[in-house]
Amino acid sequence: MKKKLKITVLVDEAEIPANDPHFELCPPEPITEYHVIEALRSLGHDVLIVGAAENISELANNLTRTEPDLVFNLTEHIAGDRRQDKNIAALLEMLHIPFTGTSAAGLMLCRDKRLCKQLLSLHKIRVPGFVYLPHNKAIHISRHIHYPLVVKPAFEDSSEGISNASIVATDAALKERVEFVHQKWEQAAIAEEYIEGRELYVSILGNKKLTALPARECFLNPETNQGPCLATYRVKWNIEYRKKWNITFGFAELEPNVVKNVERICKKVYKVLQIWDYGRIDLRLTADNKVIILEANANPDLAYGEEVAEAAAKSGISYEKLIERIIHLALRRYN
Questions:
Q1: Hey, is 262 helix, strand or coil?
Q2: Taking the model in full, what pTM does it have?
């Protein structure tokens, strides 16, 4: 008989519906929180939902008062600031409460796009050439950096701040886009070389022993020279937009030797960046099968139907089994 656990699901307070604070009424389009909470209840665990907001003392009190066996950490920000996600993990660490997902250190390494790329480069892992562009600094592009460049907010994820206009080919266009990022997202920008190739997503489970799940691919149809050539925010989150440009997500068909190399590199990224329990590595695979790492995602989206869950299902892991596996991986770290 499986052990019944007291699990506190820690969510961003803004995601708690006013009319359904216990996530019991499944909406027409359920979000990640509904999927995970429903799976935990189906697995027989006692589930309590706690919202994370700016009042840290209240949050700490709520977490310690309930004495959970485990916190399932689904937070992504504090008051909209994604740079604060690491501090939620740090609070859990200071309170000595076991939790799922990556530590404060790993979240920091993955969140800061400049630091992430610098660290991966030190470990001989290919990343796009890039330049970091903070506020109120003159823009200087090294002769080793080549246009076109993709301009992104330096601390966002889920393709936030990425659109077709993010690709720039001149100094003037770069300056304009960087200023836009500074003003709209109130943070530094990063401009990285655009990499021609296939867009792949590799989900990984584990800690000491890592399992790479089947690679997913975003089929962008760049050969038509129409529509987006990278995974913009609209590509990821707007179904009608994808239909318009015949963009689909599916599983990558790769030669066995290519699969082996992709998985090897992604596992190395996972370890270097100190990702725990589960993660997703986004990359470009060039025409000559070079692997260029774009992003590393600690605590990626666990929604049913999203990349991690789809890849798990392809390898024979049901959604409930995926959630159960993450719980076991987390608890094993503390035991």
A1: helix
A2: 0.95
Write down the pLDDT at residue 54.
85
Residue-range domains of the chain with CATH: 6-99 (no CATH), 129-193 (3.30.1490), 196-334 (3.30.470.20)
Write out the H or E segment, with its range, that includes residue 59. helix 56-66
Compute and round to an integer the Cα radius of gyration of the chain: 20
Cα gap 59→105, rounded to integer Å: 21
Cα separation values, 48 from 22, 41, 66, Å: 8, 10, 9
Of 325, 200, 317, residue with least CA distance to 252 = 200
For residues 1 and 76, what is the distance between their CA atoms, to the nearest angstrom?
A: 34
Taking only the tens place, the pLDDT of each residue in 32-70 is: 999 999 999 999 999 999 999 888 999 999 999 989 999
In terms of phi and psi (left: phi > 0; alpha: psi -120 to 50; beta: otherwise), the region of 91 is: alpha
∠ at Cα 198 (125, 187), nearest 5°? Answer: 65
Half-sphere exposure of 149 (CA within 13 A, CB side): 26
DSSP category for residue 158: T
User: What is the CB neighbour count within 10 angstroms for residue 186?
Assistant: 10
Quick: pLDDT tens for 159-201.
Answer: 999 999 999 999 999 999 999 999 999 999 999 999 999 999 9
| 229-241 tens-digit pLDDT | 999 999 999 999 9
Amino acid letter, residue 241: Y
Strands 70-73 and 6-12: parallel
DSSP one-letter code for 95: T
Q: What burial class does residue 67 get, using C-beta atoms within 10 Å of its C-beta: 0-12 exposed, 13-18 middle, 19+ buried?
A: exposed
